[in-house]
Specification:
alpha+beta; 9-stranded mixed sheet; two-stranded antiparallel ribbon; 10 helices; elongated
Length: about 525
């Protein structure tokens, strides 16, 4: 852009495929238009700094750069100025100085990125959100953002001017291209889809091998595409495809293949070229007015001739520019050849020096090669010795392997014996388990009998204790009876002594004694 070359970017695809998001961005991401403006002002600042540095050294000149923007929307062949105060309707046209223009649309001068973003956001807010019986008008709408860069440089007291333009096209949804154009015009009117249908028409014409002429004036949208598609600009086409839309993706890919076949002719728009283009545009405008004055409307055969004349003039202009460019290229090549010759002379001396160096390296390499052969012979001897040792080790390893095989057979026999012993042991173990179960049962029965015997012994012990206690009681009774008997005997003795004087009462005493014995027996009982 700062070299004076026009640039255009067109976003094509179905509705909802992401054309508008790619150009305008979202809340957290900048679109391509904003990113371009950021890069543009950075490049302008760098160029101003470089020229200012040259000014200090006395080798530069003055430099000024003006950036202006326009933003319009095309709906149903009506062009709306999105940056205007009242969103007025404007028209497209052909200007003798600028070429395709938007007439009467407001141009905003911008000096920094922030100012552009404010204008751009305001224009986006002014885009249509209406609908009709065929759906949302935004699906049929096209947005065109144009940024003009005017540079003026003072070199040797001469002002050099270059004017370049960047145009972003947010195209309508291309899903209508599936339908027949005539049927579509009958159903939805002749102007609602005129932009996208005309775009398809000029792409078909310019991509054809037999036809290089296209009629741009068939719609407001394609009128503005005159320089961007097949004209004086570098064009970048962004084709958007939507997920889960194979038919739309196939259509978009076919359109992409056609667009790649279109040739553009970008040139530097300096002062001389601007004046030359103005001359040809004036001729074209005169021929158009002449055709209209002759009673035609600029369509049909006269319009075709007009397009052919315009193409011839552009081709002649391009040829002249090519000759000028070739002259500059030849001059530059001659200077390059001189520089290359001087470089080759220097390189010759360098090559000679390198040749001497290479001879020395060759001698060193030969010496190293001889040393390598000697080392190789030693390595062969070492290899043979190593091979003999390896063979000897292999024989020893075979003997070891045989011995290991014998040990393995012995171990297998031992394992078989151990397995047989293990089987017998398991059988003995099962028999012992059976005997253990019987013993356990006998033990439980014996324990039960023992508990019963213990209970009986406890009962016998209690009875024995009771008998002992009764025996003690009987012993105490016997002792008391004995004491009573002694007392009775002593009384008897006393009575005998008393009876001795009185023998007359013998019978009475005997009677008492008999009673005493009877009482004693009863007490013992």
């Amino acid at each position: 852009i700062l070299q004076g070359i026009n640039f255009g970017l067109i976003a094509v695809g179905a509705t909802g495929a992401g054309k508008t998001f790619s150009l305008e961005g979202g809340k957290s991401e900048n679109g391509l238009a904003t990113l371009f403006i950021q890069g543009l002002f950075t490049a302008i600042a760098n160029k101003q700094a470089q020229i200012a540095a040259l000014d200090k050294k006395g080798g530069g000149g003055g430099y000024t750069c003006t950036v202006r923007m326009q933003f319009v929307e095309i709906v149903d062949e009506e062009v709306t100025d999105l940056l205007g105060k009242t969103s007025e309707h404007v028209n497209t046209g052909l200007d003798e100085w600028e070429g395709p223009i938007i007439e009467n649309a407001e141009r905003k001068a911008i000096t920094n990125e922030q100012q552009f973003m404010e204008y751009y956001a305001a224009g986006i807010q002014n885009r249509t959100n209406l609908a009709n019986e065929f759906g949302k008008l935004s699906d049929k709408a096209a947005a065109v953002l144009s940024v003009e860069v005017i540079q003026m440089t003072n070199v040797n007291d001469e002002n050099q001017v270059s004017v370049s333009k960047v145009t972003f096209f947010d195209m309508p949804g291309d899903e209508v291209l599936f339908q027949d154009p005539e049927t579509l015009r009958i159903k939805q009117g002749s102007t609602l889809n005129q932009g996208i249908l005309s775009l398809q028409s000029i792409i078909n014409d310019l991509s054809s091998e037999t036809k290089e002429l296209a009629i741009y004036d068939s719609s407001q949208l394609t009128t503005l595409c005159r320089d961007v598609i097949g004209g004086n600009a570098v064009c970048l086409a962004l084709f958007n495809m939507q997920y889960d839309d194979p038919n739309g993706s196939d259509r978009t890919i076919k359109l992409l293949k056609q667009t790649r076949m279109i040739a553009n002719f970008p040139i530097v728009n300096d002062s001389l070229l601007i004046n030359l283009l103005r001359k040809y545009r004036l001729e074209v405008m005169y021929l158009r007015q002449h055709l209209l004055g002759a009673g035609t409307d600029g369509s049909g055969g006269n319009q075709l001739k007009f397009g052919e004349l315009e193409k011839r003039m552009l081709d002649e202009n391009i040829e002249m520019l090519k000759f000028s460019d070739e002259k500059k290229m030849v001059t530059g090549r001659m200077q390059d050849l001189r520089n290359k010759y001087n470089t080759l002379v220097k390189q010759k001396a360098e090559v000679q020096r390198q040749l001497l160096t290479s001879e020395e390296e060759k001698v060193n390499i030969s010496k190293a090669l001889l040393e390598f052969k000697i080392a190789h012979t030693k390595l062969q001897e070492q290899l043979q010795s190593s091979q003999y040792e390896v063979q000897a080790k292999a024989v020893g390893e075979e003997a070891d392997a045989l011995e290991l095989q014998l040990k393995q057979e012995k171990a297998e026999k031992t394992i078989a014996d151990l397995q047989e012993q293990l089987t017998k042991t398991l059988e003995d173990y099962q028999e012992m388990q059976i005997e253990f179960a019987a013993l356990k049962k006998n033990y439980l029965n014996t324990s039960q009998n023992l508990e019963e015997q213990k209970k009986k012994n406890e009962e016998v012990g209690l009875e024995l204790i009771n008998l002992i206690n009764e025996n003690k009681a009987l012993s105490s009774d016997t002792t008391s009876i004995s004491k009573k008997h002694g007392t009775v005997h002593s009384e008897y003795e006393k009575n005998n002594q008393e009876a001795e004087p009185t023998r007359g009462g013998n019978s009475k005493i005997k009677g008492r004694a008999c009673q005493g014995r009877i009482g004693s027996r009863e007490s013992q009982k």
